[in-house]
């Protein structure tokens, strides 16, 4: 298949940055007094590296739950002589006043502060230190940056009675920011006088006033010779606004879009307004009018509209006012408007809800600053992925991953995004996805499970994980995924469907993995969690998939893992085994899983004495006659008894039933099995079976072991012949044939 863009390896720069950030002490820093990070004195880093370190750090804190933020991280960049910063993007709670304060000596050219709600007016003062170099600044969603704390009186007690009041700073302006060209004040709080704030700026090129209500925007004309980009998203427009915009003749990008669900909105777009823009804003290459209602018909008659091939030529435009454009627009935002469904739209890229391309353009354009719109666009993508087939799968996946990362705490995006991921990762799209991309999906899914205890998100995330090969594809996050699933299963109130999927995943995760993985998961409380689930189901007298999967998971996790076998016994596992057997005498699958697990316990010499009770031995002996699940239950019961017999007559510490009587029943059982039985079992190693061959103390155990090997290598030769040879089975069989104590039929089978 052709190499996918997303498949190319990370750059060396990215890998090194990531490594250094995860190992600051071992690489760039040392710890002073065991708490403060300090840069090694011989380290000098240019802005290309420092910018990446800071921006990646913010990304890691935001999207990687295992990554620990450092209190003193930003102080590493306090001295421009050793570390240079130029362009940095900081987000959300990660950044506080003291962090900006720490880097105030840097000559920043670009500073994006997005939704940094912890920043207060102290940071406004810090901004002044960057005023002589700053070209680009965003304060989007920094809702407290114009507030300072006013402390009434210095007295301690008084402070408790009358906590600090927040006061709006009125006197700050961009005086002295002589190079500032690009400014985003989106979602600025009410009460700040935007006109006064901006007046000192001589030549603004781009201004974003999203979500701000201004009745008078006449002051914008002071930049009519320089302003090339203006965003007034969700501003209540009026005729006055339109007249001002029409004077900004240098505009190349204009966004007057709105969220049509946000509030009642008087203004309606008319043909005249669009004509005015087309006539006056001759350089316009990007226009967003998403969410607007059209007051009158801007479209050409439908007969004419449907004619010919779809075209982006302005002369053929289905939207009449755009026939006056000199050339097609680079971008036209028509999301949630009726216009996006027309045939001829004079733009290279259109955001809308008509088809996959328009929907992806919408997600791409609005993710960063407009989660409320993005979640609705992702919802449309979800429908496309579910009902039709996605033709731009990689792009769709990347966009959803980005949205989920960017808005980790936005419930709507987490719900719609996790649902879309389920459909975008299912098997029909499998071939088109690289390992790297699939790992990114797993990361955001686990982030979602961590941040959201909400049922829908949890269910979507668990279902999405089922689209992966388990355990292989989850191996790189093995501990984390197990912790999250156990966490779900340990909640007191549980959604049935989530419980079922989570147990299924847990079972798959401990199947066919190394013993150290199993031990680690055992230590996390896996055994206890499964036994609790079994206990609950027993109390409800239900034997469903959860019950069967729980026993199956215990069977898997105890395989050649003595610690977990011991835990099973310590947490009253045998009591539950007997109760399940009594409560559900007809459930074959259940019996097979339970006996498979007890087979694992019986392989551990130190634990066998705990199985040596009249009650248990009687139960195992009776199960020798079971016809449940073919020979599996009888076979496993015989396996348990074979290991117990292997300890010799002196270990038989009970009067009833007699050892000889049980031996007789074991011979009878083995002789009743069909040697060509197809099996419902999977051996990773023959070691526990092979150890029963070179001994004379229990010929029946020897016979059971030989039968097991004979059956497996004859029914599944490709899989089990190599395993038998690799684990040294051949010489053991040859030696056994020479043993006097071995039964003739055992020797025949061995031969």
Automatic annotation (TrEMBL):
The keyword Repeat applies. Residues 404-750 form the Protein zer-1 homolog-like C-terminal domain. Coiled coil: none annotated. It comes from the Eukaryota. Keywords: Acetylation, Leucine-rich repeat, Repeat, Ubl conjugation pathway. Residues 196-337 form the Zer-1-like leucine-rich repeats region domain. GO terms for cellular component: Cul2-RING ubiquitin ligase complex. InterPro entries: ARM-like, ARM-type_fold, Armadillo, LRR_dom_sf, LRR_Zer-1, ZER1-like_C, Zyg-11_UBL_adapter. The keyword Repeat applies. Interacts with the ELOC-ELOB/Elongin BC complex. Part of an E3 ubiquitin ligase complex including ZER1, CUL2 and Elongin BC. Belongs to the zyg-11 family. PANTHER family: PROTEIN ZER-1 HOMOLOG (PTHR12904:SF23), PTHR12904. This is Protein zer-1 homolog. The gene is Zer1.
């Amino acid at each position: 298949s052709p190499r996918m863009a997303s498949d190319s390896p990370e750059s060396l720069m990215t890998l090194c940055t990531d490594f250094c950030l995860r190992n600051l002490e071992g690489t760039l820093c040392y710890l002073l007094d065991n708490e403060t990070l300090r840069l090694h004195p011989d380290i000098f880093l240019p802005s290309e590296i420092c910018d990446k370190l800071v921006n990646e750090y913010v990304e890691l804190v935001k999207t990687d739950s295992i990554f620990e933020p450092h209190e003193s991280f930003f102080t590493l960049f306090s001295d421009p002589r050793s570390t240079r910063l130029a362009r940095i993007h900081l987000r959300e709670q990660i950044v506080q006043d003291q962090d900006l304060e720490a880097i105030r000596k840097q000559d920043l050219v670009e500073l994006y502060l997005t939704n940094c709600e912890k920043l207060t007016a102290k940071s406004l003062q810090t901004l002044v230190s960057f005023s002589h170099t700053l070209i680009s600044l965003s304060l989007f969603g920094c809702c407290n940056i114009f507030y300072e704390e006013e402390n009434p009186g210095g007295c301690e007690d008084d402070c408790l009675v009358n906590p600090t009041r927040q006061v709006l700073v009125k006197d700050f302006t961009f005086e002295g920011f002589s190079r500032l060209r690009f400014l985003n004040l989106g979602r600025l709080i009410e009460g700040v006088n935007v006109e006064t704030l901006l007046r000192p700026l001589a030549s603004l090129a781009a201004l974003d006033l999203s979500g701000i209500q201004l009745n008078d925007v006449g002051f914008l004309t002071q930049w009519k010779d320089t302003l090339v980009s203006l965003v007034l998203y969700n501003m209540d427009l009026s005729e006055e606004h339109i007249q001002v915009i029409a004077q900004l003749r240098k505009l190349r990008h204009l966004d007057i879009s709105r969220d049509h669900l946000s509030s009642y909105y008087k203004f309606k777009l008319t043909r005249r307004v669009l004509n005015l823009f087309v006539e006056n804003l001759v350089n316009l290459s990007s226009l967003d009018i998403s969410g607007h209602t059209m007051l009158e018909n801007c479209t050409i008659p439908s007969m004419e509209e449907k004619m010919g091939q779809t075209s982006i030529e302005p002369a053929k435009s289905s939207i009449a006012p755009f026939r006056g454009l000199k050339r097609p627009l680079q971008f036209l935002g028509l999301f949630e408007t009726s216009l996006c469904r027309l045939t001829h739209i004079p733009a290279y890229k259109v955001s809308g809800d008509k088809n996959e391309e328009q929907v992806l353009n919408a997600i791409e354009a609005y993710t960063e600053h407009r989660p409320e719109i993005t979640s609705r666009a992702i919802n449309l993508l979800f429908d496309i992925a579910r009902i039709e087939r996605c033709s731009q799968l990689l792009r769709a996946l990347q966009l959803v991953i980005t949205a989920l990362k960017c808005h980790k705490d936005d419930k709507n995006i987490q719900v719609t995004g996790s649902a879309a991921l389920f459909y975008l990762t299912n098997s029909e799209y499998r071939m088109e996805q690289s390992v790297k991309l699939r790992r990114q999906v797993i990361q955001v899914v686990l982030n979602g499970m961590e941040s959201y205890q909400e049922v829908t998100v949890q269910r979507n995330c668990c279902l999405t994980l089922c689209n992966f090969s388990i355990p292989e594809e989850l191996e790189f996050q093995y501990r984390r995924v197990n912790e999250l699933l156990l966490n779900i299963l340990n909640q007191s109130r549980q959604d049935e469907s989530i419980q079922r999927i989570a147990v299924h995943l847990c079972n798959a995760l401990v199947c066919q993995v190394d013993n150290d993985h199993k031990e680690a998961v055992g230590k996390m409380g896996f055994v206890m969690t499964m036994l609790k689930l079994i206990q609950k189901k027993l109390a409800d007298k239900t034997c469903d998939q959860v019950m069967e999967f729980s026993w199956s998971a215990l069977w898997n996790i105890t395989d050649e893992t003595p610690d977990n076998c011991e835990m099973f016994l310590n947490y009253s596992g045998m009591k539950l085994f007997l109760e399940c057997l009594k409560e559900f005498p007809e459930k074959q699958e259940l019996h097979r899983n339970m006996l498979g697990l007890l087979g694992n316990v019986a392989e551990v010499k130190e634990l066998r004495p705990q199985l040596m009770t009249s009650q248990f031995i009687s139960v195992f002996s009776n199960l020798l006659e079971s016809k449940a699940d073919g020979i599996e239950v009888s076979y496993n019961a015989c396996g348990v008894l074979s290991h117990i017999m292997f300890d010799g007559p002196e270990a038989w510490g009970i009067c009833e039933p007699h050892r000889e009587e049980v031996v007789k029943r074991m011979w009878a059982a083995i002789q009743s099995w069909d040697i060509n039985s197809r099996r419902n079992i999977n051996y990773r190693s023959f070691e526990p079976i092979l150890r029963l061959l070179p001994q004379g103390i229990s010929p029946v155990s020897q016979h059971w072991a030989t039968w097991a090997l004979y059956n497996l290598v004859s029914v599944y030769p490709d899989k089990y012949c190599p395993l038998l040879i690799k684990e040294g089975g051949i010489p053991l069989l040859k030696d056994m044939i020479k043993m006097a104590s071995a039964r003739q039929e055992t020797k025949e089978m061995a031969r």
